């Protein structure tokens, strides 16, 4: 398996887990919070898709999917907002249907898969962010994004399980 195939598979697992987390849930359930400061499934999936979109697009120097797709969410946030540091009130503002959440993730996944499918091992050493010490390479950025996204997808799956048990 090549590095490109491995990364394509990993991003595919993010998309699969997002679909599993929302399957059969209503918009109300997706927005439900386990306590007043907890993240909802909708926020978790919006956030992980925004991070994947922002970081992968940035690493490859292409426009984010959010530029066009984001208008459908009708959120009061800046286009650059990925949810990092959101307050409880901001988390509550993220409401969306399963179709909207998975549609955005599918579009983000399609772009990420297309971008990583052609990389070589040599590409992975390219520095994509010099604001850190040491500078961040493409390999570090992609692994970081995959890790973050899978953690949030797992959190969404956990919340889903609790919500379904509470029925």
Brief overview:
The protein has 167 residues and is mainly α. The chain has 7 helices and 2 strands, in the order ααααααββα.
Q: What is the CATH topology descriptor?
A: Four Helix Bundle (Hemerythrin (Met), subunit A)
Order of helices and strands: HHHHHHEEH
* Low-confidence regions: none
Approximate strand percentage: under 5%
Give your account of this protein's structure.
The chain contains seven helices and two strands; from the N terminus they run ααααααββα. The chain has a single domain (3-165), classed as Four Helix Bundle (Hemerythrin (Met), subunit A) (Up-down Bundle). The termini are far apart. It is mainly α and 167 residues long. α3 runs antiparallel to α7. It has helices spanning 3-22, 27-31, 41-60, 66-69, 88-92, 98-116, 138-165, and strands at residues 127-129, 136-137. Helices cover 60% and strands 3% of the residues.
Structural descriptors:
two-stranded antiparallel ribbon, mainly alpha, 2 strands, 3% strand, single chain, 167 residues, Four Helix Bundle (Hemerythrin (Met), subunit A)
Topology:
Blueprint (H helix, E strand, L loop, with lengths): L2 H20 L4 H5 L9 H20 L5 H4 L18 H5 L5 H19 L10 E3 L6 E2 H28 L2
Antiparallel strand pairs: 1-2
Helix pairs in contact: 1-6, 1-7, 3-6, 3-7
């Amino acid at each position: 398996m090549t590095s490109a195939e491995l990364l394509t598979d990993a991003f595919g697992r993010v998309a699969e887990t997002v679909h599993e987390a929302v399957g059969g849930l209503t918009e109300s359930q997706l927005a439900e919070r386990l306590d007043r400061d907890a993240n909802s499934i909708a926020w978790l999936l919006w956030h992980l898709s925004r991070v994947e979109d922002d970081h992968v697009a940035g690493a490859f120097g292409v426009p984010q999917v959010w530029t066009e797709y984001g208008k459908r969410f009708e959120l009061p946030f800046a286009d650059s907002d990925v949810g990092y540091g959101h307050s409880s009130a901001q988390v509550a503002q993220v409401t969306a249907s399963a179709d909207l959440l998975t549609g955005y993730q599918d579009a983000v996944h399609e772009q990420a898969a297309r971008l990583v499918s052609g990389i070589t091992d040599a590409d992975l050493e390219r520095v994509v962010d010099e604001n850190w010490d040491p500078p961040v390479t493409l390999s570090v950025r992609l692994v970081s994004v995959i890790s973050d996204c899978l953690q949030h997808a797992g959190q969404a799956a956990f919340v889903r399980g609790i919500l379904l048990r509470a029925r």
